[in-house]
């Protein structure tokens, strides 16, 4: 609102705007002049500030450089200790020796440093408790070790950048690096000033920005390539407060000048705009009285006079435009009246068309479906009167559900049609199919739907009938062809395509003559054509040809189709493929002819026919040959009883009588079963004319007339005497085969023509552990074990043999068994063929060779072990002649196998092994013992090497020594290392004795010095207290403060010395006694009673604290320190809560003291146990930094260990372990 009023006030006065513009121009000049002065002043201030920054940056660089130099120098001096390099030569225990060198170096100058001892290969030996080297760091170190010189780099990761440096540890006898002293110096831990940033650049250092001072750190030579530097940036307000005051004075002066100019400009603007005020007055009069003859009087020739003239011209033109506009409005009004008359005429025509139309019409409101209007035709169609229709809703007529209506509208949209198909309900209850054409219509400002409804119920019924007829023709199994009156095909159904092979596209437009095969005569076609063109249907047979050239028979029915005018428009042909039935009839005729030929020509089979009473009517040549009778002597004269055994016939008659329950005799014995069941097969004994007996297989069948009446019987007999004899022999052979199979662990198998197993002998069940019937139908490759590798080439060759029906022998493969194991089997097989030479399958045998396979696998495995062994293997005969060497032997000695095989093993002797050694060696192995020892042998190039050798005898099957096997390991490096280790151990023993003496002297000195220093401190404290009392009221505030500082410092010094005395005494007790920790804790709590009361601490102790062996005073001191720290190091607003607990864990007593104090950061937990390591500022919490170091020494003196688990801000838990008291179970 304020801005709107301001804008209105500013725009209402031209004089005001003139005055403001003038004032702004003046203000701009003031700003330019003032800005120039301000810039010169700022430049002077910046120059002085830059000089100060350079001085501060140089001081910071000297300070940080000194810290880094001290750290690197401390570690470098440690790396120069020859004892460390000598210790690295030792092959075992070196970490135990090296760890003490790192003790106390977890932090240097308060900076945590990770230090790692590595050997010459970069492997970690010992650390100072920090993190081990990562993979990237170890790769860098390996490269440095290869180069053999100390180096350093900077690595950055997610935790920040750090210096990674490595000092080479050279062996003083060879100057070769035996390892390295590698350490990490975290740059983020350096105590930088708030304005300083530590940066580095290994190659080129980028220039510092304009507001930053860059100074390179003075560091040791090892870190020179890293180019560490300090970037010093001064805070934004460093320019000082003086420039702000100058700026304020300049701003006040500029503001006063601006207000003065604004007032003067306002006076001048009012005088300049006096003439315009009169123009404004005249313009207001013209606006209030409307367009008239009012005009502005013009005087003078200045800009205002020109503006008045322009105003008069504008008023003249506006008046002319108004007069023209009134004429156009009158003309447009006349046109609108004419349009209204035409619209009324159009509406009258619409109502006449709507009312008189023979099409049902509805006007529907699309908003709610209400029928607004309906014409009389709609009332007649639906059966409701007009008034009733106008009160109905379209949903009362449309029977489709909303979902179906939406579906129909979507279909119409997709099919791009302008009508919809619905089902409407009539007043009579009948439902009619309607086709609705709908469009929008504007009526009285409303948009209605104008719908034309067509009844399509009858049309849809006819369409559906046509569709059903079309589907019947399409799905008919008979071919259907429709041709025009000229015989050209217009339609064929799918059955035609299936029968002829021609597609519909290929047939349409063709004359059916394209199917002619030439077997049907032209006369037959002409007779057919004459009959159908005369209007009569025709039926007959065609012998046509398919597209592929194959002949086929068709039974065709062709009818003419007559149109409404009574003339033929098309021909309809329905054709059935009868090729199969025609071929069957031809086959029957052909078989009848062949039967007569067979009966006459068959000489090996007796064919005998009888009438219903058994009189022989046919006796073929085969019967004559089989029985020795001539046909003419039996036909129409005898029955088959002539050549049958009477006893056999009677016996068969009794069997049938018992089976059927009626007496059977005579000829009925031969034909009764055949008459009942259609045929009878049985073995009979024929009696030849010469009296010899034949065994025959007789098949008897009845012969039927067309009326299904039996008119005779036909018997076909085959002499099976030879087969019966062969069967007897086969049975004997099978019995022998069965005995053979059942008496062996091998098995016999058979497979069919598809190589599926069809039979196994019983012994196979025991091999696979399951019923072999479960494998019937499976093929050999279906039962292969899936746990063993398949040898593809071997299987491919085997499958090739099976495909070619070739016999095979000893094919091996792994078969899976019932217990999920596998067996290695060997099978052999031969193909089997029937009498016609058709392949029937395979028959063969199999054997379980798993044991042999396992032995072979073990042999191969042992061979691979020997060949790939990392030690040398040599096999010799009993005389020492080399028979075998492995690859490692060749690698070690330099000999190729062919150079040593056949040579005596003396070839490898160096000549420096005592003869007695060889005598003991041969004496041991010749007596069957194993000899183990070390020999100095010689390689092919003449160099000597030490080997650790184990020689064993190898026995033959008779128990005699047949060979010797020697397993040899090159231990040259180990022997040299042992020599260096022995020498280093001697040096270490000497140094150890020296260090023990030195440590004893240092401990005694620390104790004496600490004890003697306390007396002077107590004297200083006492005299300062006397001075304070003596002066009394004369003490000024400063002097009292100085005395308090001195007394406080002396007291802290006394506590520090006392803690040092305790630290030096820890572990010097005279012996261990049983200490009840419950009593030790109780005494510690009693000592801290005042502290606990003042702090309102809550202390809880778990019942049943155990007893340990130790020093009672030290254990009280341990708990007193831990509980006292828990009370001391806690936020002032928090009440101390302390828990003392224990449990047994891993055979030790695990105790803990838990508090809710300030907590300890993870990176400070190891440092907390170091002497003089304070983790908080002195002014926040009092202390000497020795308490936890004493606790650590007490726990370790009692054979345990101590550690911290903590969360910053929530508290800490100090865990301790103690060995269990031997007297407790």
Automatic annotation (TrEMBL):
Which residues belong to any copy of the HAMP domain? 270-323
Domain of life of the native organism: Bacteria
Q: What are the protein's UniProt keywords?
A: Coiled coil, Kinase, Membrane, Phosphoprotein, Transferase, Transmembrane, Transmembrane helix
- What residue stretches are annotated with the Histidine kinase domain? 1008-1222
Has UniProt tagged this entry with the keyword Repressor?
A: no
- Which example biological process does GO assign this protein? regulation of DNA-templated transcription
* CC terms in the record's Gene Ontology section: membrane
- Recorded protein name is histidine kinase
